[in-house]
UniProtKB/TrEMBL annotation:
PANTHER family: GENERAL SECRETION PATHWAY PROTEIN A-RELATED, PHOSPHORIBULOKINASE _ URIDINE KINASE FAMILY. It comes from the Bacteria. The lineage of its organism: Bacteria, Pseudomonadati, Pseudomonadota, Gammaproteobacteria, Alteromonadales. GO terms for molecular function: ATP hydrolysis activity. Residues 42-185 form the AAA+ ATPase domain. It comes from Pseudidiomarina aestuarii. This is General secretion pathway protein.
Length: 477
């Protein structure tokens, strides 16, 4: 309805996976790089997870477009299979013929093994891509692991890419699947878009759709990002409805009111209490006051615990500062009883903690927590912030792990490190300790001559593009 009005030749925010609207944000490019590294390694499994609508399919399509013609691929879009159906589906996808009436699991396995050996002899790579892999049964995953046992001295003959929602990570932590989890050589958790990416995403799709000018004002884009929480699929729905709302009003551009109207149509109007007698609002207000006072009392008592007995950053009853750090990385609350610094590795993040000068922490350029002598934590999210006077000098910081950091095969990580050092133009003829000292001096971080945690965190912050950074100090005119 609004195409002619806005000068568009096609709907720009359809949720259909149209290749011409493929937009790779910085986080999607980072995910693609991890998957590409994984296919170049010698391991058998690659893992991509993310919430619903974050663009996992977008990344997988981009990956497949990059594969050479010597790659044989099998797609499993319906993971609700048993072991026999898995083997049969793989044979069907690879074009392997078999007698369906008398076939057994052994015959299917033998045919797959012969096919993989022949493909390797012909210089071909075989890749299996499984979408919605969180629905796979443990027995099916174990069958996949057994198939990847076929290998040469250098590499696996079958690579498996598992794509799924965060529940897939919980599935792979099961004890009976520990052997499979150890064979994952590359993993990436796709987080929602950041505000800058949301703006570029909207404008890119509008341009492909035929727009010759911006159709969303800046405040509308910020509102879309907030209401969509950076989820591309929901972002598409909101933008499509907002364009329709602006068209119905004959407005030249989409404003905040149009985005809110779109959100109301998608989510329905907010529930309202029946307060025709005037008592409804007063009761609700009184309840809210009680809740706020109770919450303040509980919070103060939690913060008043002496330092020796206070909750650490690894406990689930997280202080306010820790919650802010999780929000900065757009992470959910960790499961009960889970150590935070262990849990975040599932999201391709590392945990850096210790003592360091504040100016050196700012150089690393990741949001952080500063431990105070009261046992509380101060969240630092911008370069203009200053540490509290009772800061102990200790800190906690999350940082983006490089590709293959925890993989059994370290070749991915080693290649990343070599390219990273080259990108900073460090003299390769120097001893490795001197190369690290050169970087540390120029970076303004502690000089150790070793690839310690602070140095690696600084390298990822300045080499990679994803993850939150400290907001820069704004200079007033």
């Amino acid at each position: 309805m609004y195409l002619n009005y806005f000068g568009l030749h096609t709907t720009p925010f359809s949720i259909a996976p149209d290749p011409q609207f493929l937009y790779m944000s910085e986080r999607h490019q980072e995910a693609l790089a991890h998957l590409t590294y994984g296919l170049q390694g010698s391991g058998g499994f690659i893992l991509l997870t993310g919430e619903v609508g974050t663009g996992k399919t977008t990344v997988s399509r981009a990956l497949l477009e990059q594969l050479s013609e010597a790659t044989r691929t099998a797609f499993i879009l319906n993971p609700m299979l048993n072991e026999h159906e898995l083997l049969a589906t793989l044979c069907d996808e690879f074009g392997i013929r078999y007698a369906k009436r008398s076939v057994t699991d052994k015959k299917l396995t033998d045919k797959l093994s012969a096919f993989l050996l022949e493909a390797h002899a012909n210089g071909e790579q075989c890749v299996v891509l499984i979408d919605e892999a969180q629905h796979l049964q443990p027995q099916v995953l174990e069958q996949l692991r057994l198939l990847t046992n076929l290998e040469t001295n250098q590499e696996k003959l079958l690579r498996v890419i598992l794509i799924g929602q965060p529940e897939l990570q919980d599935l792979l932590r099961r004890r009976e699947l520990r052997q499979l989890a150890q064979r994952i050589t590359a993993r990436y958790h796709l987080l929602p878009l950041q505000l800058e990416d949301t703006e570029r995403y909207i404008n890119y799709r509008l341009q492909v759709g035929g727009a010759t000018r911006g159709l969303f004002d800046s405040k509308a884009i910020s509102t879309v990002h907030r209401l969509s929480e950076g989820i591309p699929r929901r972002l598409n729905l909101l933008c499509d409805r907002a364009l329709l709302a602006a068209y119905n009003e004959q407005a030249p551009v989409v404003a905040v009111r149009h985005v809110k109207e779109a959100a109301s149509e998608l989510d329905g109007p907010p529930q309202q209490a029946n307060d025709s007698n005037g008592w409804g609002r007063e009761i609700i207000l009184a309840l809210l006051i009680v809740i706020v006072l109770l919450g303040t009392y509980v919070w103060r008592n939690q913060m008043a615990v002496p330092a020796a007995e206070s909750t650490s950053v690894e406990q689930t009853s997280a202080p306010v500062g820790e919650a802010a750090l999780l929000r900065a990385w757009q992470l959910p609350q960790p499961p009960s009883g889970t150590a935070l610094c262990d849990w975040i590795t599932e999201y391709q993040l590392g945990c850096l903690r210790g003592q360091m000068r504040f100016d050196q922490l700012l150089q690393i350029n990741y949001p952080m927590l500063l431990e105070l002598d009261t046992g509380e934590y101060q969240f630092i999210g911008s370069t203009s912030a200053q540490p509290a006077s009772n800061w102990t000098g200790r800190y906690v910081m999350f940082w983006q792990l490089p590709p293959g950091y925890f993989a059994e095969d370290e070749s991915l990580y080693e290649r990343w490190l070599v390219k990273t050092l080259q990108s900073f133009q460090v003299d390769p003829s120097l001893p490795i300790a001197d190369q690290f000292r050169t970087i540390q001096v120029e970076a303004g971080i502690p000089v150790s001559g070793e690839l310690d945690g602070a140095t690696l965190a600084w390298l990822t912050a300045h080499r990679q593009t994803t993850g939150p950074r400290l907001q820069q100090r704004q200079v007033e005119d």
